[in-house]
Specification:
Blueprint: H1 18-28, H2 46-53, H3 57-71, H4 83-96, H5 101-106, H6 116-127, H7 130-133, H8 140-154, E1 159-169, H9 177-183, E2 191-198, E3 204-212, H10 217-223, H11 225-231, E4 239-241, E5 252-253, H12 262-288, H13 304-322, H14 351-364, H15 381-384
Parallel strand pairs: 1-4, 4-5
Antiparallel strand pairs: 1-2, 2-3
């Protein structure tokens, strides 16, 4: 039986020891014979594997086995290639944003034969695995664990994650003016956007929605599953931390717009420090999976395929972190978080939320408070690379 070597300290990458469950399920489906069979990945040495897929051999083996198991449980038409060949084509596209001739040759394809359908099939399968590999803390113990790590990192208590919109460049036809305009974001380029939440270690805890680039961040949060859960108190008295594009609420903690005291300044510094974790995480994801730097053409009414690729790459990001796969050398960069599109009408701040934030600041960021130094030495894994 294949043995997967994982980093055990990173609990939030998976909610459960799903890698062991995969091995059990594979054996239960009579898959043990496949472990000894040649794989199309065997033709690449470790250096070439990383160059073509930005992943390591044990990590790729786990992904392939998991996809194989998943494909047995979903209704798919006759597969055009073996599972590992399809995974190879998809992982190569995710990593480089294009298909390499050497990889296509390995699986009997050529540059003329477009692997779009293969990538789409694998993306749908991997995106469907998000319930296993993208886990928002659901139990009181898990919430407390995540919040304590957040507080250790930046000094802000009772935070379950960092919330941000992630923009992914796309092409939209300028000849279809109405559709084109809907994709133009605040920076003037065309994009789609998803709502991402990560923890202090850079694990992705939630990814949902795939909207046109002009969508208001607040509207996306209000209509999202996670937003409704948080605002309905389903996750208890905790916050998610977010930027100025979101409204301060009893569960969304934004920075102080106009600082009036040293306490406010210290809080904003701590807020910026943990917010940078999201920037680093998105930078790492986009550079490990360069397909996210340019997602091709999109139409407003057909964003599901883009959504599947974004979610699939988020799943693979968490798996790569669990296997301690280093990001590509260029992945240490900070990803710019775009300023949110602002509503034209002034928004009245919830007085209860304002009071709660002020109480948090006074208790944790006043001189002599017991808060941790927000300028401490904690860094994410990607920043250490």
């Amino acid at each position: 039986m294949r043995v997967y070597t994982l980093r055990s300290s990173n609990k939030m990458a998976f909610a459960l020891p799903v890698w062991l469950a995969v091995q059990e399920e594979l054996l239960g489906h009579g898959e043990e014979a496949e472990y000894g069979t040649p794989s199309c990945f065997d033709g690449f040495d470790d250096e070439a594997l990383f160059d073509y897929f930005h992943l390591t051999r044990p990590c790729i083996a786990f992904i392939t086995d998991t996809v194989r198991l998943r494909m047995k449980t979903v209704a798919l038409k006759k597969l055009p290639l073996s599972v590992d060949a399809m995974v190879m084509v998809a992982l190569n596209y995710y990593a480089l944003g294009v298909s390499s001739a050497a990889v296509l040759q390995k699986v009997g394809l050529n540059l003329i034969e477009c692997p779009t359908n293969i990538v789409g099939t694998v993306s749908g399968v991997v995106a469907g695995m998000s319930d296993q590999f993208i886990s928002f803390p659901q139990t009181p113990e898990a919430r407390t664990d995540v919040a304590l790590k957040m507080e250790t990192f930046c000094g802000i208590p009772n935070v379950l994650g960092v919330l941000a919109p992630a923009h992914f460049k796309i092409r939209a036809s300028p000849y279809e003016k109405d559709t084109f305009r809907s994709f133009v974001n605040t920076q003037g380029y065309t994009s789609v956007m998803s709502q991402i939440i990560c923890d202090s270690d850079g694990n992705i805890l939630s990814v949902e929605k795939c909207c046109v680039g002009s969508t208001f961040e607040q509207e996306m949060w209000d209509s999202s599953f996670k937003g409704r859960e948080m605002e309905e108190d389903l996750h208890g008295p905790f916050w998610v931390l977010a930027g100025k594009g979101y409204h301060l609420s009893k569960h969304v903690l934004t920075p102080v717009s106009e600082t009036a005291t040293e306490n406010d300044i210290r809080f904003n510094e701590a807020h910026a420090k943990i917010h940078d974790v999201m920037r680093t995480t998105l930078g790492s994801v986009k550079r490990r999976f360069k397909c996210l730097m340019q997602l091709g053409f999109a139409q407003e009414g057909s964003l599901n395929k883009k959504s599947n690729i974004i979610k699939a790459c988020s799943v693979l990001h968490n798996i790569a972190k669990k296997f301690s796969v280093p990001p590509p050398p260029t992945a240490g960069k900070i990803e710019a978080l775009l300023p949110g599109k602002q509503l034209s009408a002034a928004v009245e701040i919830n007085p209860d939320a304002l009071k709660a934030r002020q109480e948090l600041i006074d208790a944790n960021f006043s001189v002599g408070s017991s808060s941790r130094d927000p300028s401490g030495s904690n860094t994410t894994e990607e920043e250490d690379v």
